[in-house]
Amino acid sequence: MKPGTLSFYEHAVRNAIRAVTCNLDQALDVHALARCAALSPFHFHRVFRGMVGETPIELHRRLRLERAAWFLRHQETPVTEIAFAAGYETHESFTRAFRLRYDCSPSEFRQGRAADGPGCAQPYPIELTSQLGIHFRPEGVLPFDEPLIRGDIDMNVLIKEMPELRVANRISEAFARLGQVAGQAGLFGPESMMLGLYYDDPETTPPAELHSDAALVVSAKATIPSGLVEQKVAQGRYACYSHMGSYDKLGDAWSRLMGDWLPKSGHRMRDGVSFEIYRNMPGQVPEEQLQTEIYIPLE
């Protein structure tokens, strides 16, 4: 393992955790967290989720809800005021979010605090599930000393020297439209591969703000038709993990690759686009036989 590689990622994530837990009263700037970690937003979110078990936004939101639950249990602060402090613009939106996590309304949670007495039913718990045991306390967020790196994860990751890929894409559009335009232009051939190029984390970025491209690898001689944009994916070293099965599980695969395998591997990511190559497509094979290769650029 390259000296300092694991500590680089662990140090970056621990600093981000401190920034999140110490700023519950402010909106979370995930791009600023990524800059402080010296990682792109896409890479930062995946590494953080893999190490912590939740994204920075999920951690921030959960701790705010735990703080809200503590206020409901121990103070007479109006629910609307608690909702605003938790980052919700209305009583209704706060109630929906609270019920989703606590399986009761804020008012029901507050009424349940009387069950603290001897011989009574247990009150609703304030703490929500946390992989690292990071929880709100009135004196501050509960300190944590759990290791951020879990045990060995069985991932067959290959280090590949990839050539430069010439791709044609439609900016932020679906594969169906890309395939239609590419098919009409005769771009499909022996070298063709469908790619998903990601610049933001699709799990934490609203769809309207997500910067990602549907792309098709084309030959050097192919003419790119109107309606498609030519782009080059840089040659170099990439870590590649082959995921078999449903696309619904790709987020977990990304997190294990970047939150577990990468910090222990001795490698560091370099600037560059991360992408997926789809070796087959839905409709061609059963869902459990879908093969998706995940690529991250390495120094």
Which terms would index this structure?
299 residues; alpha+beta; Arc Repressor Mutant, subunit A; Multidrug-efflux Transporter 1 Regulator Bmrr, Chain A; 2 domains; elongated
Report what the structure shows.
- The chain has an 8-stranded antiparallel β-sheet.
- The protein folds into 2 domains: 149 residues, Homeodomain-like (Arc Repressor Mutant, subunit A), CATH 1.10.10.60; 141 residues, Regulatory factor, effector binding domain (Multidrug-efflux Transporter 1 Regulator Bmrr, Chain A, Alpha-Beta Barrel), CATH 3.20.80.
- By secondary structure, it is an alpha+beta fold.
- The protein is elongated.
- About 3% of the residues have low confidence.
- α1 packs across α9.
Q: Widest sheet: strand order?
A: 1-6-8-7-3-4-2-5
Radius of gyration: 23 Å
Inertia-based shape = elongated
CATH architecture of the largest domain: Orthogonal Bundle
Question: What is the terminal separation in angstroms?
Answer: 14 Å
Class from secondary-structure proportions: alpha+beta
Helices, by number, come to: 9
Helix and strand element order: HHHHHHHEEHEEEEHEE
